[in-house]
Amino acid sequence: MILLKVNGVSKSFGGLKALNNVSVEVAANTIHSIVGPNGSGKTTLFNVVTGFSRPTAGTIEFKGEDITALRPSDITFRGLVRTFQNVLLFKNLTVLENVLVGRHCRLKAQAVHSVYRPQWVVEEEAANVRRARDLLELAGLAGYESDLAKNLSYGEQKRLELARALATDPKMVMLDEPAAGTTTAEAENLVDLLRQIRDMGKTILLIEHKMDMVMSISDRVSVLNFGTKIAEGSPAEVISNRQVIEAYLGKRWLDAQA
Ligand code: ADP
Ligand code: MG
Fold first, then answer.
1. pTM above 0.90?
2. With CB atoms 3.0 to 4.6 Å apart as the test, which of 126, 163, 183, 249 could cross-link to 139 if both were Cys?
3. The dihedral of CA 229, 231, 235, 239: what is its sign?
4. How many angstroms separate the alpha carbon of residue 18 from the centre of ligand 1?
């Protein structure tokens, strides 16, 4: 089943075509990666799909519904959530509070309930805190609940952002370079974590430069170059594609395989 359908999407910034008639289909319960050189339009694709910017042409469907004109919060509510290339956290809130912010879109309680607190509100709050703690444990951040987000390492901040995204109860998460700036050990743990998330029934769209990670984890890979999709297929198909080698992987990659 196709969960996300990007149909002929273009995005121009003045004279620059950051995306040029890009179509991508993401199947449910898979890990699908988007790779390509810097500036090839990967983040722009994420922005357009999640409502942070509007496409110049084309449409986006999620679970069969046209979401092209929806706001980010409405898209999150429908079960599609993303993280950012440059971590976007509430740096002066605690780790636990950051995850609770992600829960907010699923709460029934309203502002009035911070004063008037019937039993169901108290229970909802307790359940939310339990759920947030479970997600922090999944993300390898148990024990950090009371730390300020800004005091975490970069790799930990990236995982916290992922935990917050999961707190929205998504069907699909889109991760913009989750392993960038992390150590090799952290990247290996991240591979396990992403597999666990997929095995929980979720779908992952991943932007990542670490090719060994992309190779080991992806069901399918799409390659962008100058805003155009130049290849798509299994990891093995994509890395042996001459155009992909020339545009992205480079001569060093070829030599390493020889
Ligand atoms: P990637 O994530 O693949 O590195 P981006 O999607 O960030 O690439 O950028 C694609 C191209 O669009 C780049 O040339 C970038 O400079 C340009 N671009 C991205 N966002 C904007 C913007 N808001 N205004 C103008 N140009 C932009
Ligand atoms: Mg980017």
1. yes
2. 163
3. negative
4. 6
